[in-house]
Amino acid sequence: MRYNVVVIGGGISGVSIAYFLAEKSVERVVVVESDYLGNGSTFKCAGGIRASFTSREHVVLMKKSIELWGKLAEKYGFPYKRSGYLWLIEKEEDYIKFKRIRNFHNKLGLETRFVDQDFVRDVAPTVDTSRLVTALYDPLAGKASPFKSLHALYLASKKNGVEYRVGERVTKILAGKGAILGVRTSKEEIKSEFVVVAAGAWSKDLLKTVNVDIPIQPVPHHAAITEEYDRAFDPLLVDVSTGAYTVQTSHGHVLMGVEIEEVPGAAPVVRLDFLSKLVKVWSKWLPWLMDSNILRYWVGYYVTSPDHHPILGPIEDVEGLYVATGFSGHGFMMGPVVGEEISEWIINGRPSINETKNLTLSRFKEGRLIHEQAVIG
Amino acid sequence: MGEGVKAYICRCEGVTLSDVDKALEEGFRDIESIKRRLRIGMGPCQGRYCIPLLISYVARRLGVSPEELGYPSVRPPIEPVPAKMFLVVRKNEV
After folding, report:
1. What is the number of CB-based contacts under 8 A between chain A and chain B?
2. Interchain pair B82, A227: CB under 8 A
C-alpha cells in the first residue's frame, strides 16, 4: 500500500498534523513514533500557551493556535484555560522595557496590560506582592494539559482513520530524483507521496539521510513539580528578573522551571543546583513553597533554531518532504496551528497564514532570519 | 468480580483495573503511556506499589513478558522532599 502522508514523530506537532489532515479528509495517513506518544519535548513541557511574543510571526501564528486550542478543548473536553500569563516585575528598569513590549502587543491586537497589586492578589491569591513594582498581564494566554490534549488528538485522529505505528523507528527517509519515495523503518519500507519530519531533536539526523541539513540544537531545560494543591494561582507566572516560570497544572501540581547554564547538545541530566536555584527564585514570590514537597524533577529539550523560531514547511530540494521542528521551547502551544498550516500546505500547496511562509528552511540560506521586534533583556 | 465492585490498582490516584482495561482498548500498550493516560504511579508513592502490579497485569493481558514491557523512567527525588532542603545545598555538591 502507498500512503499519502507519513508523519515521523508522535509528539504534539506530528499528532496535530495527522489530526488536521484526517479532518480535511486526507486518507492513508500514518504516524510513526519510535518510542511512545509525547515522549520527546511534548510531555516534558509546562503546558503554557500564549501569543504575547516579540515577533510578528510568533504573535500571528500563536493567535490562530489559541483560537484552535479553544475549539479543540471544547470538542474533546480536555483541560484548557485562558487563565493568562503574569510577568512579575520588581525593578523600575524592567517596567520601561516591558512598556515597549506591551505597545508592540497592543499594536498587533493583543490586550496585554499592566495590572496593580489588587489585581495580582485576585488572580494569584498565594503570591506575596510586597516586592512587586508592577506586573504585565496577558489575558489571552493560558494553559492546557499536555497528556490529555495529545491523547485526545491521538484518539480523535485514530477514529478518523489515521494509522499509528508506536514503537517503530524510522531509520531512513527515501528519495529519488529530487522527490520523496517514502521511509524505511525498523520493520519495513513504507511508500508515500509526502513525508513530514516532526521528530523534534531527532529531526536533524533523519534529514541527514536525504542530505538536508537543518540548523537545530537540543538544549536541556529543567523542570520540577510539587505535590498537588487547591487553587494557588490561575495565570502562569514569570519572574522577570530571572525568566523563571511557574504554572499550576489542571491536576493541582505547581510546575516550575528556571534556566541554568547548559551546553547545547548535552545529555539531559538532573542537577541539584537546578533545584536549589528554582526554590530560591520561587520562594521569593511564593513563601509557602518552602514547606511544600518536591515530587518530581525531569529534563527535556528545547529544540532550538538560530532565530528561536520553528522551521516549518516544504524542503525545496526534495519534493514532498516537509519539516516541523525547531520550536525553541514553544512547540506545544503552537501544535494546533502547525497541524492546520502543514495540512493546508500539503493539500493546497500553500499555508493559510501569510507569515507561516517566512518560517521555511530556506530563510537561513537567503538570510531572512526572523527578528525579535521588542527585545527582552 | 461482583457487579459494581472496583479493584484499585493505584491508591494515590484512584485508578482501577477497569481503567487499565479501557486504556489498553484505546491503544495505549506501553507502561509509560498508560502511566500518563491514567496518572497511575504519579502520586506520592511515585509508583512504588502500583507500577509492579501494573506491569504484571498488562503483561498477562497482552501475553508478553514483564521484561518486555519494562519499567518506566524513575524521576528524582525517590520520595517527596521538602523544597527548603534544596536551599541548604552548596552549588557543586552533586
Report:
1. 85
2. no
Taking residues A358-366, what's their average pLDDT? 97
* pLDDT tens readout for residues B83-93: 999 988 765 55
What is the ipTM, given to two decimal places? 0.92
B39/A36 CB distance under 8 A: no
Angle at A91 between CA A88 and CA A96, to 5 degrees: 90
Q: Are strands A134-138 and A179-185 parallel, antiparallel or unpaired?
A: unpaired
Q: What pLDDT does B78 receive? A: 85
Residue labelled with grid coordinates 516537509: A322
CB distance A273–B29 less than 8 Å? no
Per-residue pLDDT for A251 more than 80?
A: yes
Based on its alpha-carbon atoms, the radius of gyration of chain A, rounded to whole angstroms, reads: 21
Q: How far is CA B1 from CA B4, B8, B17, B24, in A?
A: 9, 13, 11, 19
For A4, residues 6+ apart whose C-beta sits below 8 A from its C-beta are: A21, A26, A27, A28, A29, A192, A193, A194
Q: Who wins on pLDDT, B92 or B46?
A: B46
Q: What are phi and psi of A149, to 5 degrees?
A: -75, -45
Question: Could B26 and A147 be called an inter-chain contact, meaning their C-beta atoms sit closer than 8 Å?
Answer: no
The whole-angstrom separation of Cα A229 and Cα B80 is: 14
DSSP B59-74: HHHHT--HHHH-PPPP
**A165-189: average pLDDT:** 97
Q: Which residues of A104-133 are buried (b: 16+ CB within 10 A; e: fewer)?
A: bbeebebebebbeeeebeebbebbeeeebe
Q: Give the C-alpha separation, A248 to A256, whole Å.
A: 9
B16 inside 8 A of chain A by CB: no
Residues 6+ positions from A152 with CB-CB distance below 8 Å:
A72, A76, A77, A78
Quick one: average pLDDT of A14-39?
98
Contacts of A11 (CB under 8 A, 6+ apart): A37, A38, A39, A40, A41, A42, A150, A198, A199, A200, A331
Q: Are B19 and B8 in contact (CB under 8 A)?
A: no
Instruction: Say how many C-beta atoms besides its own lie within 10 A of residue A82's C-beta.
Output: 17
pTM here is: 0.96
CA angle A106, A66, A14 (to 5 degrees): 135
In 3D space, the residue among A329, A346, A112, A63 whose CA is nearest the CA of residue A201 turns out to be: A329
Helix, coil or strand: residue A49: strand
Cell 505547581 -> residue: A254
